[in-house]
Amino acid sequence: MAGSDNTFDFNNPDLVSAYDEVPLWSAPFGLRLLNTVRFRRGISALDVGCGTGFPLLDLAQRLGESSRVTGLDPWNAALMRARAKIRTMNIRNAAVVAGTAEQMPFADRSFDLVVSNNGINNVQDQEAAMRECARVSRPGAQLVITVNLPDTMREFYTVYADVLRTLEMTAALTSMQEHIRARRKPAADTVALVTRSGYRVESSEEESFTLPFADGSALFSHFFVRLAFLQPWKDVVSPADADRVFRKLEASLNRIAEDAGGLRLTVPFLCISAVRT
After folding, report:
1. What are the domain boundaries of the chain?
2. Mean pLDDT of all residues in 25-38
3. What is this structure's pTM?
4. CA distance linking residue 124 with residue 100, whole number of Å
């Protein structure tokens, strides 16, 4: 049977390190993305912003070896990790390439499918990134992207804004609003971006999930929050004020969690499927 293998060594640390390594932050977006892809044989696919390999590796396995899937990311350390997983999992139809979404190292009309799991909204120049997606897409190619929306973690930002108002930090409040706008566009803006880049939007669906925490202290100590969110949150205020502001913010979140029986952050997101015209 294709893909059968009875030689796995379950004591091999490489096997264990390659197993079940999808951040819970990425998984809800990626599951919706994978459910939107039109799976068919013999295609060439691109995952823009593949990171350490999700959804790249699952996409490659679901498409099968008649297809070829390439991951693109500027983060070299993450690509090394993805390559290690490709070797360990013996995925023969996947590869990763270093590069940016704004200047992809691929020829025109190279791909039948382009996906990006919450990646396009995190590039430096979204317009340029989408133009590149269109350039490397063949006519009729499917584009599937997920992006989180402006109300992401609104429960947190509401408390953060209250703290800044209490401390009379008007400039920081403006910076917080700019921080949100920079990475999280309204759904209509993203649909318009995809359309003017040369795609016909087939569907645009909004969904959401929640991230529960015991309290604000647990939120701020969570590894992925520290990795991806905490410093940008702190950059809203001056370095001299960050410790004072975040002590007060943590205390406020903890009081809310105590009254409510925990802290739940809502993450709304958009999944777009489009066709290259």
Report:
1. 1-149+184-208+269-277, 150-183+215-261
2. 96
3. 0.93
4. 9
